[in-house]
Design brief:
By secondary structure, the chain is of the alpha/beta class. It has 2 domains: 136 residues, 3-Layer(aba) Sandwich (Rossmann fold); 152 residues, Rossmann fold. The protein is 35% helix and 15% strand. It is built from 10 helices and 9 strands. Strand 8, helix 8 and strand 9 form a beta-alpha-beta unit. Helix 1 crosses helix 5, helix 2 packs across helix 10 and helix 5 crosses helix 6. The longest helix is centred in the last third of the chain and has 19 residues. The protein is globular and about 55 Å long. The structure holds phosphoric acid mono(formamide)ester (CP). The site of phosphoric acid mono(formamide)ester has 9 residues, from helix 2.
Length: 310
């Protein structure tokens, strides 16, 4: 199979075959990351612009590293040091960058739909690195890669996503991807942090964490997105931690094979304790490593690369 889409804007509508293609390609690229010389010429001659209009550590670093590992030429931009500060629009910013013959644009933006808007304005391939509370497709892909490495398949896994579902692009992309790959998804959080129509995405919904965790294979723990909450949606952090914090005591009856995931950044002591985040169930740093491999795969496939590497 050859990758057909020009852009990667989200996982809504992406088929199981396409997801498998990205994960298989990422698996091949991961081997490069363990070599003494971590560099291949797969993207030589391709220029990538990384446009981060919102803060990022993992996503930005892993895209930049992926580009370097593949020998692409890349430039990075952050709002604080750009002409956005002087009032330049998103469209003008990207049109100007594209005029310098950029082939691919990676964009993170606080506005849902910003990557889709860009994809209509420019010829470059656009990759969504997180748009508002909408989607974060490469995060869900790296999460699925991590689970596939551990379990072999996503089919039939019971995945509980806990926390601020309403403001989470990670939750939305994971729901699309995991459902497509045959996992069952339960979302759990206080009513004020659950989107009204979330059942329509094909998930089960619970406000009771202990009930939701029964029989769980995977718990994906989300940060409270306080920067996106426009009103007080929680009585207090202490109450949130008591009702929804993931602690070792809460995991007492868990499966031995349980997996704890977190997309980061972690607020230790709020949604997860350090004992769980750093404990035996956690694959949080495996997720980070797989983030580089997945972004290498996405860049490669969108550049027109053939999936099977030799
Ligand atoms: N998971 C994630 O998107 O992290 P960053 O915000 O650090 O990129």
């Amino acid at each position: 199979m050859k990758w057909q889409s020009r852009h990667l804007l989200g996982l809504e509508g992406v088929s199981a075959e396409e997801i498998r293609l990205i994960l298989d390609t990422a698996g091949s690229f991961k081997e490069i990351l363990e070599r003494p010389i971590k560099k291949v010429p797969a993207l030589r001659g391709i220029t990538v612009a990384n446009l981060f209009f919102e803060p990022s550590t993992r996503t930005r670093f892993s895209f930049e590293l992926a580009e370097k590992r593949m020998s692409a030429d890349s430039v990075s931009f952050s709002t604080a040091t750009s002409s956005v500060k002087k009032g330049e629009t998103l469209k003008d910013t990207v049109k100007n960058i594209e005029a310098m013959r950029v082939d691919m644009v990676v964009i993170r933006h606080s506005a849902a739909g910003a990557p889709h808007f860009l994809a209509r304005c420019v010829d470059a391939a656009v990759i969504n690195a997180g748009d508002g509370a909408h989607e974060h497709p490469t995060q869900a892909l790296l999460d699925m890669m991590t689970l596939r490495e551990k379990y072999g398949s996503l089919e039939g896994l019971r995945v509980v996503i806990v926390g601020d579902i309403a403001h989470s692009r990670v939750a939305r992309s994971n729901i699309w991807g995991l459902r497509t790959m045959g996992a069952s998804v339960i979302v759990c959080g206080p009513k004020t942090l659950l989107p009204l129509d979330v059942e329509q995405l094909g998930v089960d919904v619970s406000v009771n964490l202990d009930e939701a965790l029964e029989g769980a294979d995977v718990i994906n723990v989300l940060r409270l997105q306080l920067e996106r909450q426009t009103q007080g949606l929680l009585p207090s952090m202490r109450e949130y931690n008591r009702e929804y914090g993931i602690t070792l005591q809460r995991l007492a009856g868990a499966k031995e094979s349980l997996t704890i995931m977190h997309p980061g950044p972690i607020n230790r002591g709020v949604e997860i304790t350090p004992q769980v985040a750093d404990g035996p169930y956690s694959v949080i740093l495996d997720q980070v490593l797989n983030g580089v491999a997945v972004r290498m795969a996405v860049l490669f496939l969108l550049s027109g690369g053939e999936p099977k590497l030799t």
